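Deliverable D2.4 — example input (structure tokens):
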């Protein structure tokens, strides 16, 4: 973990991942809003997407919680993930800032959101 906390490039990478996650989420919300499926179906689509993503996040979370191979190539990412448990930010910072900072450890979410964007029909 010392490697992750001592090198600024890992923190920058986490900020870039968080920015990509938030941006892709906002983009997808923007794409869903004008659909002509009606408000109830839009709500159902959002709830379904949330539940699926939360389930996948839970699986990744369980895997990462039980992973302590800090010396492997993705060791800094594992350390970044474990730091969220060691730093109770909820009482010290704005909840939106905490959400942003914790999104930086979810590299998998960038890939997932990019896949969802790629599978979307292109607007005309």
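Example output (designed residues):
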């Amino acid at each position: 973990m010392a490697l992750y906390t001592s090198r600024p490039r890992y923190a920058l990478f986490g900020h870039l991942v968080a920015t990509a996650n938030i941006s892709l989420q906002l983009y997808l919300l923007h794409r869903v809003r004008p659909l002509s499926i009606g408000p109830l179906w839009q709500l159902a689509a959002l709830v379904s997407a949330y539940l699926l993503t939360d389930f996948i996040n839970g699986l990744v979370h369980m895997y990462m919680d039980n992973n302590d191979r800090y010396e492997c190539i993705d060791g800094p990412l594992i350390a970044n993930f474990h730091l969220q448990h060691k730093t109770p930010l909820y009482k010290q910072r704005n909840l939106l800032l905490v959400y942003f900072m914790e999104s930086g450890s979810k590299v998998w979410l960038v890939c997932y959101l990019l896949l969802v964007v790629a599978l979307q029909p292109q607007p005309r």
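The chain has a mean pLDDT of 77.
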